Amino acid sequence: MRWELSPEQADFRTVLADWLGDVCPRDTLRGWLDAGDHATFAHRLHTDGWFGVGAPEDLGGEGGGLVELALAAEQFGRHAAPSSSWLASMVALPAVAAVPDAAKALFGDGAVVALATPAGTIPGGDATVRAAGAGLSGSVPTVLAADVAARFVVPVRGEKGLELHLVDAGRPGVRVQPRALTDRSRSVADIELDGVPSTLIQADAAEVLARCAHRGAVLVAADALGAMVAMLDATVEYVGQRKQFGVPIGSFQAVKHAAAEMLVKVESSRSIAYLAAAVVDAGRDDAAVYAATAKAQICAAGPVAADSALTLHGAIGYTWEHDLQFFYKRALLDAELLGSPGAWNDVLADRLPLVPGPEMSSKGGAAARAIGCDPS
Amino acid sequence: MDFGLTDDQATIRAAVADLAAKFDDQYWMECDRDKRFPSEFYDVLASGGWLGITTPEEYGGHGFGITEASILIEEVAKSGGGMNAASAIHLTIFGMHPVIKHGSDELKRRTLPGVVDGSTHVCFGVTEPGAGLDTTKITTFAEREGDHYRVNGRKVWISKAMESNKILLLTRTEKADEVAKKTDGMTLFLTDLDRDRIDVRPIPKMGRNAVSSNELFIDDLMIPVEDRVGEEGKGFTYILDGMNPERMLVAAEALGLGRVSLDRATRYGNERHVFGRPIGMNQGLQFPLADSLARLDAAELVLRKATWLYDKGEPSGREANTAKYLCADAGFEAADRALQTHGGMGYSEEYNVARYFREARLLKIAPLSQEMVLNYLGSHVLGLPRSY
Ligand SMILES: Cc1cc2nc3c(=O)[nH]c(=O)nc-3n(C[C@H](O)[C@H](O)[C@H](O)COP(=O)(O)OP(=O)(O)OC[C@H]3O[C@@H](n4cnc5c(N)ncnc54)[C@H](O)[C@@H]3O)c2cc1C
Fold first, then answer.
1. CB B101 within 8 A of CB B232
2. Which residue, A76, A108, A140, sits at the end of a domain?
3. Is the pLDDT reported for residue A356 higher than 60?
4. Residues of B with CB below 8 A from A257's CB?
5. Can you give the pTM of this predicted structure?
6. Whole-angstrom Cα distance, residue A81 to residue A83?
7. Is the same domain home to A211 and A343?
8. Which pLDDT value is given to residue A375?
9. Does the pLDDT value for residue A362 go beyond 80?
10. Which of chain A's residues have a Cβ under 8 Å away from the Cβ of B287?
11. Boundary residue ending a domain (B239, B254, B285)
């Protein structure tokens, strides 16, 4: 088997990496994060024409698919770019696709769409918003990029079951309460809806949510991969310079081995991430398995690699002045974002012919069905 | 707090180490290879009076505690005899505990002196094909007929049954579905291993091959009532009594194996030169060994605390289980690392570490799996709901 990036994809990666080097260098990033400014980056991303890459042209995108998006996510992770609004929109795209106006506004004006599910869970769990009388009511905590979204895709418990609705963030009755994250390069906010008018999205809600979940898994995994790459590069550079006992600490075997372990994580993660991106993009039946594997494996490796990077940097890595903190926190948030490795491992376990655990069976089964993993 | 050994304990340690040192690597390698019971070793310990270390003096023993017994068995394992040496004597040095505590005077007078002087070899028959960790599921049945019990059933994994003339046998005298509590209705016997009635078939296995483990097919075995240990129906509680000290002994065996593995690895790390320097100079080799030292030392402390508590008559379940868990883990890891340190030579029988590796692996499974230790700690110590 041979699988590699097409020349166009490889070019895209190089050019995007260069662009990020110009637009999002460490000093600039630090300034943005200190000021709580994610908008400048989002604006540049849009005006410089990167936002539509990976989205179908008929929706107003530039073409390409999930592999391109994964390449972008990896680079964003590698620069710890404040990319929540991009990530949220790309995750919500299967829902947005059913509403041409929203798609046009997204790619034309950069009107961000966020999927209103808690950022720490796999999209597709129980809907907490209800359609009652004139509009939607209910609350959803910690929604990715909710603070900057122009629209929300809201899973709703309707009379006939699960539905998806599109809600304008500017409507009266919508309350958005930002929350502080330790990883300052991403943002979440709580949403409260009180009788808010909405548009029903004409699509199979469960199926769309499953696709959103799979995309999210792949993109967050790719982001974690990028963060690991950045930490590996920084670590290798640092241990080559830092001298103790008269020699660079990188000459100590245990240090070399720790760095080599990081490299193994990076390489295996890359193999998993792009295979998963291609499989999910192709809409294969077993997409859930690949998405879950990528999210569970890569996002579990991230914090371990981050921990090695911190150890190898010694005390300097523990300081606010050092850039390692951006990537360390990024990897830790990626682990939980859109479902922890444990949650995605449950998805995998449900696919294996195991006896369901006594109390887990109904709940785990429901979660698995919600994201399209019903083993039966 | 006092971490030192008493004079007696220090003497026991030195004396056992001395005796065990008479049996070299070659001896154990051959016993293991030829599946031959280490009779010479057993006899030396028996004639030195060591087999009765915990047996009360009135039955010919020394009446020492589990602390001394664990020191003895640790030394035996650490000498390089490993589990072959330990299993040869394991049951003798503490397995008679249920009999000592619950057996009739007559039974004790009749059996214990022979166990102490080594002429009686005993094995322990609990596990069955359908009842591993879930002991209450045993079905070997003892039916009372006058002054005898008629016993039928099957046991599996019974170590040393080939070499034994007696068996400590757990049976059911009431079926599991006829008793109020599933732990009721089990009865323990110490009886002759009558080969006309019990077919003993060794199980080919991965290691510890000097001591057999066997399948037992029991067909109308007639056991006289006098061979019953304590009361009918109480056998399970008698066995439970011995569980904690058993775990401590197993922990000591794992610890001894870990120690000898680490010694061998260290020696080889110093001796073997590759790329123009001793391989032990590589941090990639040195650190795992140093890590094993730390883990073995930590595991040892829990073991010492466990035996200290038990000998004082205090509850020791938490410590006994923790000791078994940590020693089995640290012991196996040390053996694995010793193997790795030896490179290709580790895989040959010549350097003995392959034997330690195979033996150390056993202690993560039997007599109690690591998972069951976690079950115990999770539910009994932490108070989480029982998961099984
Ligand atoms: C070399 C050797 C010598 C032995 N000598 C003797 C002897 O002399 N006398 C004797 O009576 N027996 C002896 N045994 C048997 C030994 O005590 C059992 O093998 C042991 O108790 C495990 O039982 P099992 O093999 O039936 O495993 P099972 O009970 O079938 O368990 C299999 C696996 O499932 C796991 N498991 C089971 N239940 C749970 C649970 N509730 N939660 C989580 N995990 C669980 C276990 O941890 C294990 O990994 C010996 C075994 C060996 C290998």
1. no
2. A108
3. yes
4. 283-284
5. 0.85
6. 5
7. yes
8. 34
9. no
10. 254
11. B239
